[in-house]
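[Discussion] Sanity-checking designs against the backbone

I'm trying to build intuition for which residues belong where. Below is a structure token string of 931 positions. I'd appreciate it if someone posts a full sequence so I can compare it with mine line by line.
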């Protein structure tokens, strides 16, 4: 049970609305539905408000809320009447305090009246905007689509909250009151506002970590704690030593890092009396917490960053004890949490909740620490003894263990580090938070991420794309699936195919690599050289066979080789520089690969300087493979025309150089291309679609829609399914055909034969009654040996569609990824070969065009082998509408259009199957992980 209690018996309490959020100042708070037990806290909140704030909220001055009004405010049904509160830790009798309230009362089916009240001391932190965002999400879930409010004219701050949220606010004044109304359906502008606020808040929370000027190191030698393990004590002392040797402007304090001369744990300073110590020895949880808290009595605040090397059993008490120091973040170096099982996971969640309620971010558990180079030196709050030199690469590692080889590889190559964060089990701070920070950080040019799992792929895509538009992002995942979930990582299960991760990365514009070697190979060309202007590359080799080999490697990497020249091994410096300059500066060359591997003699430092001068003078992208050189070297460094030193990155093999250059070219191409516009197809009624889904799901956990229901839902977004008539026998088939008009198609509904004209389950171009009756007999006989569709008629009669190519369009709501759209051409070959392309909404029009063209069989749509080109734009329109519908309604568990016939003019869906189920999408609102 947490400090705020549990609603427990109230089954209507929407626990899914609870969220930890980051405010504009980078601190955290907890948002949740109001509870009946909040009466005392709500009264205390009201009493603490200024007379002006009370007047603006209630249009009158109330020193205290009358008991009847107080009970009405805390008793809500979470449907017709909803209230959310933001809470923070407090030392008072309740254990927490309310710092903001937002509520709505439904006026009619679509409309609700809203009111907000933010604590005077919390104004300006973005709390009103966060509460509005979460209240709007809750209202949409309950079917409300419009908010109305009445505010006094002088309450300009509240009016601004509504307008600044990105909604189209309508207002009019009457009798001294301003009436406001606005639709709460998300818009491009409201999404952009939310993303921008999220970006600023999370970036600021990381800035507090990486810019920390006051650090508290906490070791395991604490009163009431278990006997200290040498490992934990060694961690704490190592971090202390690193901090002492780095930036002298960082104030460092420590608790629990020393044993007394006898080896005993010292008593608490000032806060733990003998009774408390005895209680602690007896295992009393409260006495132990009091004893640990007493050890922090001498800490001088405020503290920016706390680094903890304490046993898991003590972590919760330590986090609570450091809250009064004002720490903005906690780095938890030790393990022993979720990886140990359910009890450890609960402990991890409790530690995280305590940190968030105190306004702190949590890095870890099992973190390797954080490093940040500043002008005055390094903030080395990590376990790393030897840091890479200062530079402009930002590095994030989800794994504490892999942080060791990552930092070592960076150092050995001579690459410079700007910031490094190891998230360990990633209970809270993730790569998304660091990408938010690096988007604004002027000291970082290249970002590298090692990810074992992606906790919120939709947010990752959004944040990574924003960053990749200005800085390259290189991603290494644990395994091709990107979802290798090690013990200790609490991540939603996913059924998405591994290729969905590839598509997520491609849409985001990140560079995905296969191993740590490739990560730094790509990082060094992007950190040291200008982005390639194109993919035309010149090759200069020290032998004809070597030049040919390099040219093949370049072509394999997706580059276009426009020239391969041989530089004799014994060429002097003048000849070498002339030939290299000629190759690089050719007008049809965008980049160059220079290779020198002599068969006689060793490394020649003069050759490196020749290459460096030619590259620096050209302003083009140059990579090299030169015997004896690797990474960043003085030999391959020369000033450019402006006098700025430029280094040609050196690679171990020519293939490495070509592969890295290929990645750089693809990234540069992505960055400069048109990324499209958000999808807004004409004739879509998402509000109507949501109403249909809500009505059909009412009182049920899952619904398989009928053909008529599927058609209605799809029609609401402009996707029209060719009507079909279910029939049982020849007479019904003939009647249906007469109503539709010949020629018709006859189909079995047996799943094994559905859509299978090759097996006789579909008969096309049935011209008259005689043919139809014969086909009915044959199809029924054929289907008799197969399991039929439960509750469905055995046959369908449908009008003939125009001739064309059959495609399949699907959407599946994944617990982790949200909607996953897939497109492929119909048929056994596509199914067997997995020739399907995937997209993760929200998509742009360019994303849809890429998606349709991605399958290997897609050329059939464009006039393959003399066939007429088909109406691909019509197929794109269908895919776009499915993507918009699936993105807006997470209740659509599965949607399949099979087939969609793409003709020379138009595209028509012949059948649709849709399953609905209640959903809990991970990114519905701004929220932190709570695992």
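Best answer:
Here's mine. Compare freely.
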């Amino acid at each position: 049970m947490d400090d705020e209690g549990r609603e427990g018996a109230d089954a209507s309490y929407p626990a899914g609305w609870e969220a930890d959020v980051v405010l504009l100042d980078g601190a955290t708070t907890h948002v949740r539905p109001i509870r009946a037990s909040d009466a005392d806290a709500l009264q205390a909140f009201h009493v603490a408000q200024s007379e002006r704030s009370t007047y603006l909220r209630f249009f009158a001055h109330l020193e205290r809320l009358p008991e009847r009004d107080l009970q009405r405010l805390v008793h809500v049904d979470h449907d017709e009447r909803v209230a959310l509160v933001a809470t923070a830790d407090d030392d008072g009798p309740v254990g927490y305090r309310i710092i903001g309230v937002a509520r709505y009362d439904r006026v009619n089916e679509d409309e609700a009246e809203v009111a907000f009240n933010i604590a005077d001391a919390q104004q300006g932190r973005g709390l009103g905007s966060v509460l509005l965002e979460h209240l709007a999400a809750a209202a949409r879930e309950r079917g409300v689509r419009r908010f109305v409010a009445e505010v006094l004219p002088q309450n300009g701050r509240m009016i601004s909250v509504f307008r600044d949220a990105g909604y189209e606010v309508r207002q009019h004044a009457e009798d001294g009151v301003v009436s406001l109304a606005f639709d709460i359906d998300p818009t491009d502008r409201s999404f952009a506002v939310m993303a921008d606020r999220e970006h600023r808040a999370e970036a600021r929370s990381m800035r507090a970590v990486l810019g920390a000027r006051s650090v508290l190191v906490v070791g395991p030698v604490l009163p009431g704690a278990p006997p200290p393990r040498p490992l934990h004590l060694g961690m704490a002392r190592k971090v202390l030593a690193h901090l002492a040797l780095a930036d002298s402007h960082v104030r460092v304090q420590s608790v629990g890092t020393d044993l007394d001369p006898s080896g005993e744990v010292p008593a608490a300073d000032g806060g733990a009396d003998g009774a408390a110590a005895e209680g602690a020895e007896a295992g009393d949880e409260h006495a132990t917490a009091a004893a640990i808290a007493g050890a922090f009595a001498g800490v001088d605040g405020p503290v920016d960053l706390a680094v903890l090397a304490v046993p898991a059993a003590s972590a919760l008490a330590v986090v609570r004890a450091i809250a009064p120091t004002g720490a903005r973040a906690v780095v938890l170096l030790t393990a022993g949490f979720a990886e140990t099982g359910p009890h450890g996971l609960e402990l991890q969640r409790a530690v995280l909740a305590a940190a968030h309620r105190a306004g702190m971010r949590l890095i870890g558990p099992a973190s390797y620490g954080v490093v940040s180079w500043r002008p005055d030196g390094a903030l080395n709050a990590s376990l790393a003894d030897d840091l890479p030199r200062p530079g402009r690469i930002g590095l994030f590692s989800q794994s504490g263990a892999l942080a060791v080889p990552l930092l070592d590889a960076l150092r050995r190559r001579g690459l410079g580090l700007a910031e490094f964060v190891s998230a360990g089990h990633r209970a809270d701070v993730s790569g998304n938070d660091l990408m938010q920070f690096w988007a604004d950080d002027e000291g970082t040019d290249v970002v590298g991420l090692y990810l074992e799992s992606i906790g919120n792929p939709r947010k990752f895509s959004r944040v990574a794309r924003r960053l990749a538009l200005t800085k390259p992002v290189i991603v290494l995942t644990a395994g091709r699936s990107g979802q290798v979930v090690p013990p200790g990582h609490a991540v939603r299960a996913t059924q998405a195919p591994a290729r969905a991760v590839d598509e997520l990365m491609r849409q985001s514009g990140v560079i995905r690599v296969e191993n740590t070697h490739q990560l730094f190979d790509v990082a060094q060309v992007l950190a040291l050289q200008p982005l390639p202007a194109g993919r035309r590359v010149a090759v200069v080799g020290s032998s004809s066979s070597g030049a040919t080999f390099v040219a093949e490697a370049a072509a394999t990497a997706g580059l276009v080789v426009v020239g391969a020249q041989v530089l004799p091994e014994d060429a002097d410096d003048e000849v070498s520089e002339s030939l290299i300059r000629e190759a690089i500066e050719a007008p049809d060359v965008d980049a160059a690969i220079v290779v020198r591997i002599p068969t006689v003699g060793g490394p020649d430092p003069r050759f490196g300087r020749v290459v460096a001068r030619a590259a620096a003078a050209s302003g083009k992208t140059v990579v090299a493979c030169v015997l004896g050189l690797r990474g960043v070297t003085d030999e391959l460094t020369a000033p450019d025309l402006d006098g700025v030193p430029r280094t040609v990155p050196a690679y171990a093999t020519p293939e490495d150089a070509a592969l890295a250059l290929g990645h750089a070219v693809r990234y540069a191409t992505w960055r400069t291309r048109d990324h499209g516009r958000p999808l807004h197809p004409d004739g879509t009624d998402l509000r109507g679609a949501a109403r249909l889904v809500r009505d059909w799901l009412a009182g049920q956990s899952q619904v398989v829609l009928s053909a008529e229901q599927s058609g209605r839902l799809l029609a609401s977004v402009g996707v029209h399914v060719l009507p079909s008539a279910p029939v049982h026998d020849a007479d019904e088939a003939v009647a249906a055909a007469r109503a539709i008009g010949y020629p018709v198609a006859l189909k079995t509904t047996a799943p094994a034969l559905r859509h299978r004209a090759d097996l006789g389950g579909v008969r096309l171009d049935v011209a008259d009654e005689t043919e139809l009756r014969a086909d009915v007999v044959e199809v029924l006989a054929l289907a008799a040996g197969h399991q039929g569709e439960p509750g469905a008629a055995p046959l369908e009669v449908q009008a003939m569609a125009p001739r064309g190519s059959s495609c399949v369009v699907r959407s599946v709501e994944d617990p982790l990824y949200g909607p996953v759209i897939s497109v492929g051409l119909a048929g056994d070959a596509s199914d067997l070969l997995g020739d399907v392309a995937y997209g993760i909404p929200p998509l742009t029009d360019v994303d849809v065009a890429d998606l349709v063209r991605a399958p290997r069989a897609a050329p059939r749509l464009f006039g393959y082998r003399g066939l007429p080109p088909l109406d691909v734009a019509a197929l794109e329109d269908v895919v776009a509408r499915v993507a918009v519908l699936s993105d807006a309604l997470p209740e659509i568990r599965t949607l399949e259009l099979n087939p969609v016939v793409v003709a020379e003019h138009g595209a028509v869906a012949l059948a649709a199957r849709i399953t609905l189920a209640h959903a809990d999408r991970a990114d519905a609102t701004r929220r932190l992980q709570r695992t």
